[in-house]
């Protein structure tokens, strides 16, 4: 049975891609150090979907149990990581922690300032087939009609659902470093919680960050999603087609230099929310790694909201995106080898061409 199991449950858009890339890029080294990541990256995603009983995720119902079995067979420490776990209901979270007994379960949650979180979360929703405008999204949060944002994407609620299931010393809150800090700061905070010594992991294998799209690019994608309707209702087909051939191959390759944000008219509201969040987390008994002050936006840039784009900016980006997809299609064609034709087949085709010419001569009488 595992000695300790670290459940890294989110929140989304808190550098989880970076942390997971380092973890999965160093599986062998971590295993040699006594730390197991059971299964593969996809197994953790499937386990999350199984535990949460997500109807839109095609995954076997025994996926969570299979990861738990692998953890149970390991004598050292185990890491299970998926930022979607934090959105589990209280009952689902309780089942997850209970299934790992008698191992010592630790819950790891990361938190990021809301000024950066709001635009990132809206963009993530668009990259997951969403169609609502940024104004619809942020307006719903502001009016209190989008409670799922707080439930699924903030450390406060996640700690209440998951952290309350384990002793205070086994709850860990990692704050995401602000701009300007060394790139590996987040990793070193995460590694310190688990007890991964310096030098075990090669940080050069992290695979890069999850590149954000620019305002015009994400607006083009939003309109494409709206036009697609229910053509790709499930995540896997959407990722296989739209994510791969539009987002990854074209949109992410652009300069994406037209940035966007919450908008200056909501700066005061976001700052007030940040103070409330800091106060609530400060009062919650857990191990804080980093500084809660990092959840307070510092000199937030007054970037416009994406809904304020001019029509010509969207049109120009759409045209350039089509050109990019044409180039992508051409590259794919070059990757497909010409079909091999046997000598007999070549003779048949040559004879068929001669027959067609003879028939043409007979019809024209020449």
Strand order of the largest sheet: 2-3-1-4-5-6
Number of H- or I-type helical stretches: 15
Question: Share of helix among residues?
Answer: 40-55%
CATH fold category name of the largest domain: Rossmann fold
Count of discrete structural domains? 2
Distance between the termini: 89 Å
The named CATH superfamily of the largest domain: P-loop containing nucleotide triphosphate hydrolases
Give the CATH level 1 class of the largest domain: Alpha Beta
Strand content: 5-15%
CATH architecture of the largest domain: 3-Layer(aba) Sandwich
Query: What is the strand tally?
Result: 6
Poorly predicted segments:
none
* Mean pLDDT across every amino acid position: 90
* Order of helix and strand elements from N to C terminus: EHHEHHEHEHHHHEHHHHEHH
Radius of gyration: 26 Å
Shape: globular
Q: Report the biggest beta sheet as strand number plus sense, adding barrel if it closes.
A: 6 strands, parallel
What do these coordinates show?
This protein is of the alpha/beta class. It folds into two domains: about 5-210 and about 265-295, P-loop containing nucleotide triphosphate hydrolases (Rossmann fold, 3-Layer(aba) Sandwich); about 215-260 and about 310-350, no CATH class. The chain contains 15 helices and six strands. A six-stranded parallel beta sheet has the order 2-3-1-4-5-6, with helices on both faces. Helix 3 (about 40-50) packs across helix 4 (about 65-70), helix 8 (about 145-155) crosses helix 9 (about 155-160) and helix 11 packs across helix 14. The longest helix is centred in the last third of the chain and has 25 residues, at about 310-335. The protein starts with a strand and ends with a helix.
């Amino acid at each position: 049975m595992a000695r300790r199991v670290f459940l890294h449950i989110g929140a989304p858009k808190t550098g989880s891609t970076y942390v997971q890339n380092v973890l999965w890029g160093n599986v062998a080294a971590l295993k040699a150090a006594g730390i197991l990541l059971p299964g593969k990256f996809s197994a953790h995603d499937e386990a999350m979907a199984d535990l949460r009983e997500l109807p839109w995720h095609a995954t076997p119902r025994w996926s969570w149990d299979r990861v738990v079995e692998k953890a149970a067979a390991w004598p050292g420490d185990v890491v299970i990581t998926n930022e979607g776990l934090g959105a589990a209901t209280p009952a689902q979270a309780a089942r997850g922690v209970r299934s790992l007994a008698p191992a010592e379960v630790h819950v790891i949650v990361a938190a990021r300032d809301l000024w950066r979180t709001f635009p990132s979360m809206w963009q993530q929703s668009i990259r997951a087939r969403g169609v609502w405008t940024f104004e619809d999204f942020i307006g719903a949060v502001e009016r209190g009609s989008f409670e799922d944002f707080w439930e699924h994407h903030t450390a406060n609620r996640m700690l209440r659902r998951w952290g309350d299931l384990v002793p205070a010393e086994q709850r860990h809150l990692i704050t995401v470093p602000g701009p300007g800090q060394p790139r590996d700061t987040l990793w070193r905070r995460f590694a310190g919680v688990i007890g991964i010594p310096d030098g075990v992991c090669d940080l050069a294998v992290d695979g890069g960050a999850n590149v954000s799209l620019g305002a015009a690019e994400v607006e083009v994608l939003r309109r494409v999603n709206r036009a697609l309707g229910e053509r790709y209702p499930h995540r896997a087909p959407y990722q296989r087609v739209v994510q791969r051939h539009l987002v990854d191959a074209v949109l992410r390759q652009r300069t994406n230099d037209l940035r966007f944000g919450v908008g200056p008219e909501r700066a005061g509201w976001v700052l007030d929310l940040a103070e409330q969040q800091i106060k609530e987390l400060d009062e919650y008994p857990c191990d804080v790694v980093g500084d809660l002050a990092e959840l307070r936006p510092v000199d937030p840039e007054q970037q416009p909201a994406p809904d304020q784009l001019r029509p010509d900016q969207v049109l120009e980006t759409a045209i350039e995106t089509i050109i990019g997809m044409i180039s992508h299609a051409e590259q794919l064609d070059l990757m497909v080898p010409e079909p091999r034709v046997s000598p007999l087949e070549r003779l048949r085709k040559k004879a068929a061409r001669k027959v067609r010419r003879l028939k043409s001569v007979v019809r024209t009488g020449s």
